[in-house]
Amino acid sequence: MASSSDSSLFDGGADFDWIKYTTHRPAYSSSFYDRIWTYHQSHSNHWSLAHDVGTGPGNVAEVLGARFDKVIASDPSGFHTAVARRRLAASNVTVEQCRAEDLVTLVGPDGHGKADLVTLAECIPLMDAERAFSGFAELLRPGGTLAVWFYGKPIFVGEGQERSQQIYDRIAGKAFSRIFPIKGTIWQQAFTVMASWLDNIGFPSEDWTDVERTKWNHDKPLCFLPEEYFDFEVKHENSVTADEKVEERVDRDFWAKEHCGVDWVEGFIDAQFPWKSTDDEIGAQLKPMYKELEEAMGGQGSKTKIAWPVALVLATRK
């Protein structure tokens, strides 16, 4: 996830381990992508151009490249775009450093009304959604698809799951403590999006139609941190209209990762907060907390199942 206001916040250093990054994150399943393809095909049969916004290292853009003739991947972080360019150099993906809110300007008038799909994976909380979505509406051709999704913190499934979840929250809080206190407009905006399960994002009827919202494991919070870490009240805001389709599921098999040990959890924290490893004091404080988590998971060498809370929003350009 890269911020529009501070693209360096989630940047790793030159030695950042991208294999660890991809290994210790949820994998977007083929059935998940099929859901997006099916929705798109029901409104349009164009597969020429896709935009992947907030591309990070280009994982989603790579998948889009196998489906669309051309893909433009963008991210405000020069660190991320450099990695994406290296990874996707031999593909049909063009990588641009650009804020989501400025993409329509970067593309220019000649690119308006040409895109078939715009995707935003794990980047929506830290952008000006109203301004960005207005630009996406200009980029998409009629019948084009906007797909936005976001996943939250791991859900521990199995032995010691409640205690494991509580310890994990303390670990995440400690890893995030480098930027405490969490206050200010950008953070309040970000955690409002998460607390609202993306319901705060509205789709003006003059631009969008057939909005579908799907929430997996909605019984758990989408926020990465408990509200006790915030210096503001987090509210659930609702911009969902009566004509939108909303589906909520509790499915602990969705995107599930089996056989995760405490080393996997540590890898996830490192990938989620790449600047944590640069702080030796924080790292030292985390070591006994990981040991406590391992005990809660069943002891040394124990493995557990990890599931995810996920929100997906699909909309069609009128």
TrEMBL record:
Q: Would you kindly state one Gene Ontology biological process term found in this protein's UniProt entry?
A: methylation
User: Domain of life, per the record?
Assistant: Eukaryota
Which keywords, in A-to-Z order, does the entry hold?
Answer: Methyltransferase, Transferase
Residue ranges of the Methyltransferase domain?
A: 52-144
Q: Name one Pfam family in it.
A: Methyltransf_25
Q: Name one GO molecular function term.
A: methyltransferase activity
Q: Which InterPro entries match?
A: Diverse_substrate_MTase (IPR051052), Methyltransf_25 (IPR041698), SAM-dependent_MTases_sf (IPR029063)
What is the protein's name according to its record? Methyltransferase domain-containing protein
Native organism: Letharia lupina
Give the taxonomic lineage as stored in the record: Eukaryota, Fungi, Dikarya, Ascomycota, Pezizomycotina
